[in-house]
Amino acid sequence: MRIVPFFAGLVYGAAAAEPFVNEPDTGLETYLLGTNWTEGSQPLLEDIRAIPDFDFAARQKLSNQEYSFYRTAAAGEWSYRNNLEIWSKVKFRPRQFTDVTKVNETLKTTVLGYNFSAPIFIAPAARAGYGDPERAELNFMEAAANENILYAPALFATKTIEELAAVKSNSTINGPQVTFQQIYTNANLSITWDAIQRAEATGARAIVWTIDAPATSTRHRAGRYDTSNNNSETSPLTWDIYEQMKSRTTLPIIPKGISTVEDALIAVEKGVKAIYISNHGGRQLDHSPSSLEIAYEIRRNAPHVFSQVEVLADSGVRYGTDVLKLLALGVRAVGLGRPFMYANTYGVGGVARAIQILKTEIAQDAAQVGISDVQNIPASFLNTRALEDTVFIVD
Predict the structure, then answer these.
(1) Residues 354, 324 contacting (CB under 8 angstroms)
(2) 158, 127 in Cβ contact below 8 A?
(3) Which of 145, 153, 224, 293 gives 20 to 30 Å between its CA and that of 77?
(4) pLDDT digits (tens, 9 = 90+) for 360-378
């Protein structure tokens, strides 16, 4: 699939840097060339076999401006690349002689006491209307309900909080559909308080407060098309704001964008019910750590955090194996943003297929590793030594 030069022209020692592969070669293009497919048209949904296939398929439909908004990352996009490549540093230690015949029955999980069919969720991401101008995020709401997974709508979604709430299902495993509403802090806090009130009034069950976007970020790819950041205004992001927020809602507030063990520990002290580790998909700060590195930093320095709060994570997840590695480190549920935006170019069917692909991969890959219970994966199934040189260790 598409190959992008990675530090082209630079040489480390005697060896040139390897090219960065935006999507691994899953054989999709080779297969399509043997069919009636023509470049610029989307493959049949039934030919999508892997999450990275959706990236290729989305480029066939979206304009350059639309695709660039989804794909863009901060500055030189090192963090974007690292999010995708870091997984190879952590190897599995497969164990044999294990009964894994019922592992597919162990995918069910809970987040803040609510039941879901799998430890994955649709992470907050803006402007789903690019992928499906008519239905936009309504597809996420419908597919999440049908597949019984969590959806966290973005504040800057194409559809309003009220429009999304209007299509919530009343027949999920929780009864009424459970969603968590993402918000940004606005410099004019009355706007923030209004967003929280609207979320609470329409039945959101938690507030996901993005804390890693205090100001506009450097995004060259999208900037070429004058695609501005939604969260471009410098905003206050302090624990004082958190206390004010708590006084205005009874909903649990989940800080999203925790990237160090220090901030995780402070969050525990402040009494949060859950934290959300993320580097915003590499879109805010280049050379920020991946969710895998953040999870390992917390586990390496303060493992008790995972037993004191629930931990969510996103950024760079593309495979069932990625999910399993985060779960093994103590993460409760794993979100994906861009992949669902790309899948949305097929409408609700595409979003549902992405969810189903991930569920299948999680169960199949867990069996291959020798994991009999996805909700109880010993960290000993991972060899994390390669992260020691990249993760901060507290003295």
Answers:
(1) no
(2) yes
(3) 153
(4) 999 999 999 999 999 999 9
